[in-house]
Specification:
two-stranded parallel ribbon, Rossmann fold, globular, 7-stranded parallel beta sheet, binds NADP nicotinamide-adenine-dinucleotide phosphate, 14 helices, alpha/beta
Length: about 350
């Protein structure tokens, strides 16, 4: 059994669908809303299907396994429901975490917040939450720990989010567990938060859309199907223990270019105005007071001042396959998300 903390989130949902398609160990999802793991099952299973097909094309995977995965995917949501064990819980609650570890061989830790809302802080969720998971694993005797981090985590007080992720990585490194950390650049696919934000910015900001940091922040987007393939291969590979993997897809692209691609695919004619982040801070501060879900926060503006890129061959070199280029997946999922 694999436990996925935050398994009903974007990455968790897609990882569940992919692991379910592959068969094997069942999955337990711990989240405050675990039933959301079945949300968008049609789309998460479609991504799993494409990922499995791509593996089939390499000829390195047993064709019987590929055929079995296709059959499982065809069974749809009921197959996912048979495979996933949803468990309500908060990572602040160590006894619940220990209970969640019953019969578990490996933990995939995805919980993190990028916004401090409703009294939830980076320190409590990102750092102490990771400490709680580690403590519960020790108590329950679970050894294998795969933590999802972020590219660009850093010990810099001016970046409280990235610093919390740096602190959490240290918790994992010092855990004494059989740990691995994966640090992706921007992850894109059906249901991801970045795409939702850009889509709503294009909907609500007419005809002008402002681009923070002059639109020049660089990303290296990775398709969600490729990320879950990486995660599953790490779980199967004991040589990954004790290692950190920075990964990105095969395109390095600026925020301005991404926004332009979104607009072109969605047929939205907008004027993009690059603006230095400092000019947007006062507006972000006011909006944070007026809205529970502002378009951007002051913390995010600061994060956007840093590029989020790594080697262009990071996946091929470390995981032996070629990840999809943006042009190969962006139009499909964006159209589906806005249908
Ligand atoms: N998406 C990306 O582009 C990207 C890029 C690089 C790294 N990552 C990393 O990948 C991981 C997963 O990201 P994601 O995009 O899947 O985020 P997500 O959709 O926000 O998923 C995180 C999940 O954690 C749950 N959660 C939050 N606080 C919790 C708590 N106290 N106890 C239990 N569950 C809690 C949330 O559900 P509830 O609020 O319902 O509990 C949510 O479902 C994160 O560590 C993220 O930083 C993501």
């Amino acid at each position: 059994m694999i436990l996925i903390t935050g398994g009903a989130g974007f990455v968790g949902r897609h990882l569940c669908a992919y692991l379910a398609a592959r068969g094997g160990d069942r999955v337990r999802v711990l989240s405050r809303h675990p039933e959301w793991v079945y949300e968008d099952a049609r789309h998460t299973l479609a991504v799993a299907s494409r990922t499995v097909d791509r593996m089939g094309e390499t000829g390195t995977v047993d064709p019987d396994q590929i055929a079995a995965a296709r059959e499982r995917i065809e069974r749809g949501t009921p197959m996912l429901q048979d495979f996933v064990d949803p468990l309500p819980g908060d990572i602040a609650d160590v006894p619940v975490l220990v209970e969640a570890m019953r019969g578990v061989d490996a933990v995939v830790h995805t919980v993190a917040i990028i916004r401090e809302t409703e009294g939830r802080t980076f320190a409590a969720t990102n750092v102490a939450g990771t400490e709680n998971v580690v403590a519960a694993m020790h108590e329950a005797g679970v050894r294998r720990f795969l933590a999802i981090g972020v590219m660009g985590s850093v010990d810099d007080e001016r970046q409280p989010y990235s610093r919390s992720r740096w602190l959490a990585e240290n918790v994992v490194a010092d855990s004494g567990l059989d740990h691995t950390v994966v640090k992706p650049s921007l992850v894109l696919g059906h249901g991801d938060a970045f795409s939702k934000r850009v889509i709503s910015a294009l909907d609500f900001s007419k005809p002008i859309v402002t681009l923070p940091n002059g639109g020049k922040t660089k990303f290296q987007p990775i398709w969600i199907g490729d990320l879950v393939r990486v995660l599953a291969s790490i779980l199967e590979n004991p040589d990954a223990i004790g290692r950190k993997f920075e990964i990105g897809g095969p395109d390095q692209i600026t925020f301005s270019q991404i926004a332009g691609r979104f607009a072109a695919i969605l047929g939205k004619r907008r004027a993009f105005i690059p603006v230095p982040s400092q000019l947007l801070v006062p507006g972000a501060v006011v909006l944070a007071k007026l809205s529970r879900d502002p378009p951007v926060t002051r913390t995010e503006l600061r994060e956007l001042e840093h590029d989020n890129v790594t080697d262009l061959d990071s996946i091929q070199r470390q995981f032996g396959f070629a990840p999809l280029a943006l042009s190969e997946y962006l139009p499909d999922y964006l159209s589906a998300m806005t249908r």
